[in-house]
């Protein structure tokens, strides 16, 4: 692959920026802060895109860092490259609101799909991580010699054990073991036991609440209670009305001094008796014979007395002796007088009896009929009146019997109402118990659901532990295999490059079974800890180039992009490295630098290059 040119619509500080590249060496020169890293990042972004971070990470991510300073909506550009005999133009918009990428095959004059197949073809299967660790070459970042040794040893160890500079098998194994321990600590061993216990409790509660006694009968009980209370209220109302009616009837009877049918019948008999006495007394008083007879008795008594007096005086001539005849007449007079008196007394007694019976019967008639007139019609009316009282009394007795029946019904309804209240209380208690059981059931189900998640999580954790164990086993096997194949090939390729890049000072590199690194000279093995920082930077460059060669295989060489990669080099090492690059690498090289040393050395060595000023 070869980069041809690029155009930046908007990226960081650049707007409308064009830049072209040629075969061989390209030197992009510019002072610090001129924008070299911006262009380097733009090339990588055109190949792999730039994703915006989320949350706090978005404040310092590449997207935010290189968002255009002006007109952020114009965050885009294009890059033209050549690969496999075709020229492609990659057009990309980075803006989050209109992110797009288009690839045009200019050779064929058509747009193609920017899929993995295209990028694998153009980039020889490099991912962005592989790109950053191979053809995009920086310098060792450690400032101290000891740190540079550790970093360089780490790169070589990774390459020998994993075939990748980005992958540290030892560190990955340690990380996986730590992850395994963390996962084991996250497992909750008692979850399954608690889950089984709760399931048993749930089944028990469900069996209990399915019992008929927990069937909700509150509605029917309350409906029955309402019906009973309505009937009870109606019966009480009827009873109260009947009590008032009976009270009024009894008040009427009591006002007439009656307390029952017997008293009414007795009163009627008494009235009939009085009326009979009245009629008898009136009949007797109306007889004319008694007054006449009494007068006659008095007259005869007077005559007898006169006659007896005349006899005693001898004035009357009688055939009887005067003494005996006068005495007889006197006696007769006395008897007649007594008879007259008796008759008079009887007449007076009859009058008194008539007055008495008349007064009584008038009083009776006046009380019950409102009129004291005495007649047979009045007596008949009184009899009818008494019969009304008898019927009233009978009606009252019937009402009282009904009242007693109503009272019995009321008592029955009261008992039923009390029974309904007791049943409602029972139902309320049962429903309260049911509610508690349902709450417990819901709690248990929530716990079961939570425990199910825990159990699932336990299973997932165990699966992850199993996967980690498999990964550790696989990594060990793969590392052994890589060390036996790729590691040896890497050592050989890197050794060839090291010899050239160090000007023959070090002929090769070797790594023992304990991953200790040695540099080979003609006379001895030099531990990596004893070489200079500049040499370590040369070794680092050789390793990157070796990996790039191995990963590209027989494909077209990818461009090497150096971003201030020679800062640690002295002038002689830089001269050797540039001569070696120009002579040994067939592909395109792009060197970003802020120093003029590279330009001067290239000109002095008469090495052809394309200069690009920023």
UniProtKB/TrEMBL annotation:
Pfam families: AAA_23. Residues 6-246 form the Rad50/SbcC-type AAA domain. One of its GO terms (molecular function) is ATP hydrolysis activity. Residues 379-430 form a coiled coil. GO terms for biological process: double-strand break repair. Keywords: Coiled coil, Membrane, Transmembrane, Transmembrane helix. The chain crosses the membrane at residues 292-316, 322-343. The keyword S-adenosyl-L-methionine does not apply. It comes from the Bacteria. This is AAA family ATPase. It comes from Candidatus Lachnoclostridium stercoripullorum. The lineage of its organism: Bacteria, Bacillati, Bacillota, Clostridia, Lachnospirales.
């Amino acid at each position: 692959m070869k980069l041809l040119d690029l155009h930046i619509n908007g990226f960081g500080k650049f707007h409308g920026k064009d830049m072209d590249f040629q075969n061989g060496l390209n030197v992009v020169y510019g002072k610090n802060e001129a924008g070299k890293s911006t262009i380097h990042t733009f090339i990588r972004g055109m190949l792999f895109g730039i994703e915006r971070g989320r949350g706090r990470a978005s404040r310092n991510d590449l997207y935010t860092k290189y968002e255009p300073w002006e007109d952020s909506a114009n965050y885009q550009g294009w890059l033209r490259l050549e690969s496999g005999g075709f020229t492609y133009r990659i057009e990309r918009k980075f803006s989050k609101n209109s992110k797009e990428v288009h690839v045009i095959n200019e050779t064929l004059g058509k747009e193609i799909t920017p899929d993995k197949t295209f990028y694998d073809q153009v980039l020889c299967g490099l991912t962005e991580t592989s790109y950053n660790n191979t053809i995009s070459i920086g310098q060792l970042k450690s400032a101290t010699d000891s740190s540079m040794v550790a970093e360089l040893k780490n790169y070589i160890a990774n390459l020998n054990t994993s075939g990748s500079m980005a992958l540290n098998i030892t560190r990955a194994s340690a990380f996986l073991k730590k992850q395994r321990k963390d996962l084991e600590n996250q497992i909750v061993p008692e979850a399954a036991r608690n889950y089984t216990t709760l399931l048993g409790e749930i089944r028990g509660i469900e069996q209990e609440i399915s019992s008929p006694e927990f069937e909700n009968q509150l509605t029917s009980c309350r409906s029955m209670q309402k019906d009973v209370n309505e009937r009870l209220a109606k019966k009480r109302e009827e009873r109260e009305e009947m009590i008032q009616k009976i009270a009024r009837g009894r008040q009427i009877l009591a006002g007439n001094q009656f307390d029952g049918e017997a008293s009414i019948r007795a009163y009627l008999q008494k009235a009939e008796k009085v009326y009979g006495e009245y009629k008898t007394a009136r009949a007797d008083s109306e007889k004319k014979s008694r007054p006449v007879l009494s007068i006659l008795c008095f007259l005869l008594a007077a005559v007898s007395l006169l006659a007896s007096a005349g006899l005693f005086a001898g004035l009357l001539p009688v055939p009887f002796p005067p003494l005996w005849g006068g005495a007889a007449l006197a006696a007769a007079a006395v008897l007649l007088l007594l008879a007259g008196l008796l008759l008079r007394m009887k007449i007076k007694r009859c009058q008194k009896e008539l007055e008495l019976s008349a007064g009584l019967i008038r009083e009776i008639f006046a009380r019950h009929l409102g009129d004291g007139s005495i007649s047979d019609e009045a007596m008949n009316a009184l009899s009818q009146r008494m019969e009304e009282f008898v019927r009233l009394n009978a009606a009252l007795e019937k009402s009282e019997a009904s009242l007693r029946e109503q009272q019995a019904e009321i008592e029955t309804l009261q008992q039923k109402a009390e029974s309904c209240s007791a049943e409602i209380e029972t139902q309320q208690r049962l429903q309260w118990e049911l509610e508690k059981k349902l709450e417990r059931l819901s709690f248990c189900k929530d716990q079961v659901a939570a425990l199910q998640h825990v159990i699932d999580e336990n299973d997932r954790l165990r699966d992850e532990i199993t996967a980690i164990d498999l990964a550790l086993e696989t990594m060990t096997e793969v590392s052994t295999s890589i060390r036996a194949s790729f590691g040896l090939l890497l050592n050989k390729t890197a050794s060839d490059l090291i010899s050239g890049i160090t000007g023959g000072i070090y002929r090769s590199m070797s790594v023992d079974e304990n991953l200790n690194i040695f540099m080979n000279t003609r006379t001895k093995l030099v531990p990596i800890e004893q070489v200079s920082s500049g040499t370590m930077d040369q070794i680092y460059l050789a390793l990157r180039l070796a990996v790039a060669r191995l990963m590209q295989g027989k494909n077209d060489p990818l461009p090497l992009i150096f971003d201030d990669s020679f800062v640690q080099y002295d002038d002689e090492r830089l001269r050797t490295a540039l001569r070696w690059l120009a002579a040994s690498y067939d592909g395109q090289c792009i060197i970003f630098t802020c120093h003029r040393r590279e330009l001067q050395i290239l000109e002095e060595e008469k090495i052809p290059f394309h200069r690009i000023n920023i």
